[in-house]
Please model this.
Amino acid sequence: MPSAESGGIKMCIHPDDPPFSLFGLPRVVSTQSDAQAIIDAVPSPSNGLTLCAGSYGARGDNDLVCMANAFADRIYFVHLRNVIREADGSFFESEHLCGDNDMVGLIQALLKAETKSGISIPMRPDHGHLLADEIGADGVKPWLFVSRTNERFG
Model:
């Protein structure tokens, strides 16, 4: 982190995706308390979070609006995805306004965080699905996004 601090770099860890064990491998960033432990372990302004709404939101015990408010000063990137959770703990991607997470409330909390900090948080809307007629077309980059300050990422 000292090198990141000296370079003005903001590091942001992405949560586990999926947020449950696969092949016996443990998950380390799946809940609000996991994210808090990472922030507490290295109390540097360069140590931050990617708020992936799909990954955190795949767990019904994570309240995304609460998390956005709690970590407002440490969210350095947002991945806006929504999911529908199944009774067995599995989940699948959904349209932004048709899933199990409060995307409107999340956006409101993030906009409030931006206003308070004066910093624009880069946001990517989803995994960038291609429409059938876009496959193989020149210039189509669903993974490319532009921040509100016109910075290009991707």
Observations:
- The radius of gyration is 16 Å.
- Strands lie at 11-13, 47-52, 75-79, 82-85, 91-94, 123-124, 145-146, 152-153.
- Confidence is low (pLDDT under 50) at residues 144-154.
